[in-house]
Amino acid sequence: MPSSFAPNKIDNTLAESFQKTIQMLNNAIDNNKHPHVVEHAEFLLQNHFLKILDASAHAYAMQGKPTCALVAAERIIDYSPRSAVGYIRKASIYSMYGNQRHAIAVYNDGVRMVESSQEEQILCLTTAREEATKKNESRIDFMDILPTEIVNSVIKLLPKDTTVACLELSKVWRERILECTDAWRNLSVADTQEDTKLVDEAQYIGSHVEHLKLSTTSMSIRIKYLQALKEHHFKKIRSLELTVSDTLTSLTVEITNDLRDITVAEILLSCNLLSNLIYQANSTIETCIGNFSMVSKNCGLTNLELKAKTINGPDIEEMLQSCQKLRRLVMNGCRTSVLGSINRCAPKLEILGYNTDVSVPALKDLKKKTDSEEPGLRVLYTNNGQAYVPTSAIFPLIYKSRYTLEELLACLTDLTAPEVQQFNTTYMYFKLPRVIKLNMWPCAAIQPYLLRSIADSASLKHLCVIAPADIVELTRTIMNLGEPLVSFEIAHVQSINGRPSLIQLFERYARLSETQKSLESVIFRYCAEISDPVLSALSGIKTLSEVTLRGLAHVTTQGIHGLITKLSDQLTRIELSGMNTITDDTMLVLGNLCNIYFIVLNDLKNVTDDGVRGLINKIPQRQLSKLTITIKKCPLINDICIQHATQKVKAVYTT
How many CB atoms lie within 10 A of CB 25? Predict the structure, then answer.
């Protein structure tokens, strides 16, 4: 341990003087003799208090706590800036820890601040400065000359407060200490002064840490370490111990290695008030679900997102039985057996995401239920077309929830002949009387049941249909809805037999739009049924404000221009994507849109810089400041044009 000159002892005579002066100070205060109060207080400050601070600073320095020592020395200077005591003590601390340049600077401050009449004090300062200067010129830094192995052996033996203090001594020391793996392999973070300083080094020391313990009560420190974990600065971490407060209600855990996982059960046991948990692991759910026998049956968890390599029904049943307040469950990696377990063990579940790749609504997005409404699933999302869910596995859950479902995204397999017979018997009267939003992939055998579920519906507002088997039956069902749709999406249709029925549907909606709310948004994607006459019928709907046209091979440039022109006063959002019929002339037609807020141009091979500039020049000036343009995969639009657009409109997004 470095050495420092010892402070002057406080002898008995001085102690007696202290007591006597205290008594005189109190008498002066009682008698309102203010000049005497100042006189006695100054005497105490100079002859007693500063000596006590000096002793404290020396003791801290000798314990290897230079930060605390420097704070005490600074207090001496603050209380008596014209005295040499504080400057000498502060400089000696720097000197004993090898930082002679800082010591010299402090001695210089002392020479400048101490009154010139205090010749003895000035002499002490200048003599000490000369000694520090000699040391600085002849110093030997063992960090520079010793082998790395020896330096690391020394560093790893230092207590944390000394290690942190040494980071400030020089650039060389800082680099060697931060690079010492053994010093940081096991890192425990509490609420000390050193921990507060060390948090700023998390990104540098993280690569060495294998075991991290966060017991700090400081939320800011905890967040910084967790952020460093999230940003993958802790590349070798094998274990994390997190002490949480009783107020924690929301937690996200992402485990990316193959080591033993922190289990879901352990988290719920540690966090009594947890209501929201997001848990992701690379292993199977069987290894990371944990033992729920100790978890309270009144567990307060209401929202749970699970992602694992595989999730089987039997592995989650005990968890579901303990989490009886669960209202939202999103799981990825599921086997179909999960659906049966949910059907049996989650009576209060309102939102379910099953292997879904789309954003699942949050609990706050649901309308508050009245006391008279029965419990049941209100939102069910499956995969968005990437993998079909076996209808026989999920339909019992859908049927059970038929009176409560409000949103259903169902990518279902088609039915076999035996399954059709079973459906005719079991689900003959299947209806969804409360459904508001429905996304479906109606294969040939399943389409009649799905269409029957919404026949005459007065609640359905948003319908998305992917690859329908019979578009004529689909449009007939839509025509007979109790209320017109608000949004309609149709995609991946190869046939052209349904064009007349689509024209009839849109002409009906056009008539309805004269007197009431009607269709507001349409999305057509890779649909052979969409032709110029269909677009012409669509353009008559006076409530239509959002249009997406993507990959339509059977419409012409003139047909698209006609649609945009007729809707020029209505459209607020338009997306044009993946069509060679979109040209620079189309951009000029878009320039006539009076109330447009969003334009998306995607994968357009025949749109150039001239087209975009023409669009911006034609848009009314009052609308430009409100307009957002997204440009993606348009090879003939260069960066200069995009920069020009950025200066003219509210925002431009590119990818």
Answer: 18
Coil, helix or strand for 245?
Answer: coil
DSSP β-bridge partners for residue 189:
214
The model's pLDDT over 325-377, given as tens digits with 9 standing for 90+, comes to 999 999 999 999 999 999 999 999 999 999 998 899 999 988 887 666 788 99
Report which of 129, 96, 4 is spatially closest to residue 54, judged by C-alpha positions.
4
Around Cβ 191, how many Cβ atoms within 10 Å? 11
Question: DSSP secondary structure string, 218-266?
Answer: -HHHHHHHHHHHHTT--TT--EEEE---TT--EEEEEE-SSSPPPPHHH
DSSP reduced 3-state for 331:
strand
Closest by alpha carbon to 91, among 112, 67, 73, 64? Answer: 73
Phi, psi angle pair for 110, to nearest 5°: -65, -45
Sheet bearing 211-214, strands edge to edge:
186-189, 211-214, 239-242
Answer yes or no: are the C-beta atoms of 320 and 342 closer than 8 Å.
yes
Strand pairing partners for 651? 628
- Please state, in angstroms and rounded to a whole number, the distance separating the CA atoms of residues 489 and 520: 11
- Please report, as a single letter, which amino acid is at residue 644: H
Instruction: Locate 575 and state its tokens.
Output: 């997306």
Q: What is the pLDDT of residues 474-494, one digit of tens each?
A: 999 999 999 999 999 999 998
CATH superfamily of 12-137: Tetratricopeptide repeat domain (1.25.40.10)
pLDDT tens digit sequence for 206-265: 889 988 888 887 777 877 887 788 788 888 887 777 776 566 788 777 776 544 557 888
What is the spatial distance between Cα 424 and Cα 446, in angstroms, rounded to a whole number? 11
Instruction: Yes or no: say if 121 and 114 are a contact pair by the CB < 8 Å rule.
Output: yes
- Nearest Cα neighbor of 279 from 303, 253, 300 is 253
User: For residues 304 and 295, what is the distance between their CA atoms, to the nearest angstrom?
Assistant: 15
Beta bridge partners of 493: 527
Q: Is the pTM of this model over 0.70?
A: no
What whole-number distance in Å separates Cα of residue 464 and Cα of residue 484? 14
Burial classification of residue 293, based on how many CB atoms lie within 10 Å of its CB (0-12 exposed, 13-18 middle, 19 or more buried) = exposed
pLDDT beyond 90 at 273? no
Length of the chain: 655
CA end-to-end distance (rounded Å), the chain: 59
Bridge partner residues of 380 (DSSP): 352, 408
Report which DSSP code applies to 289: S
